[in-house]
Amino acid sequence: MRSFEELLAEAQSADVTGWGFDWLSDRASEERPPWGYGQLLAQRLSTATAALDIDTGGGELLDEAPVLPPRMAATEAFGPNLIHARRRLAPRGVAVVEADAAHLPYANGSFDLVSSRHPVRPEWSEIARVLIPGGTYFAQHVGPASAIELTEYFLGPQPETGTGRHPDSEVRDAESAGLIVEKLRISRSRMEFHDIGTIVWILRKCPWWVPDFTVEAHLPRLRELDAQLRRGEPFVAHSTRHLIVARKPD
Rounded to the nearest 10 degrees, what angle do helices 4-13 and 196-205 cross at? Predict the structure, then answer.
């Protein structure tokens, strides 16, 4: 394994824009939820007429779909991701718009399919508004206390852990917006990190796990963790995800 300083320098300079995780290949791993969201989304896109992907990141997942509907749109609010998404998806005729989920720039009843993988926060009233009657929202959301082990390693025990992003509350909110939740599946998956660079990189990629994270502020804990990793003991955390399928009544 390379030195502590070399691993930190590499992780601090690496690109973290977009929503791809190839940088972690062979250095970290995460079990995937059993339902295979990407494949299921591709199937739905292949039969849709007009679809919208919210918080598309760099457009990585959408671009994996072999067939896109005749009208395909996507939104992204984070500037660096928006650049990647437009570059990646423009050749496929996808209109990528800068917008957050709370203010979708589309008319009522614009889409028969709305999708999102890991939205910042689902805005159910907007989702319901842009769906046609009978249209479907198909998404994979981040669940409560995802990667809490990483958060608490650096910040200590967190109050009210696991109360946010709870699938039960999201079902209630979706139903309050007039949607019918037809399916809800929940998964908790193991993640392993094998060198200190992967820890620094993922905390830059997902800054909400340890807000205001810097190497300098957490250097002692990083050194302790580096020693553990060099003994061959991976850092283990768990991601939580839920698949949700909701329909707008006819």
Answer: 20
125-128-130-135 Cα dihedral, nearest 10 degrees: 170
Work out the pLDDT band at 161, boundaries 50, 70, 90.
Answer: low
Question: C-alpha dihedral over 86, 90, 92, 98, to 10 degrees?
Answer: 50
The angle at the Cα of 179, spanning 178 to 180, to the nearest 5 degrees, equals: 125
Q: How many angstroms separate the CA atoms of 141 and 119, rounded?
A: 6
Q: How far apart are CA 29 and CA 44, in angstroms?
A: 28
pLDDT averaged over every residue in the chain: 96
Q: How confident is the model at residue 20, as a pLDDT?
A: 84
- Calculate mean pLDDT across residues 11-17: 95
> Do residues 51 and 72 make contact, with C-beta atoms less than 8 angstroms apart?
yes
Helices (H) and strands (E) in the chain, counts: 9, 8
Residues 6+ apart with CB under 8 A from 105: 75, 97, 99
Q: What is residue 137's three-state secondary structure?
A: strand
Three-state secondary-structure class, residue 116 = strand
206 residue type, one letter: C
122-148 average pLDDT score: 97
**Average confidence (pLDDT) over 172-177:** 98
Band (pLDDT 50/70/90 cuts) for residue 18 is confident
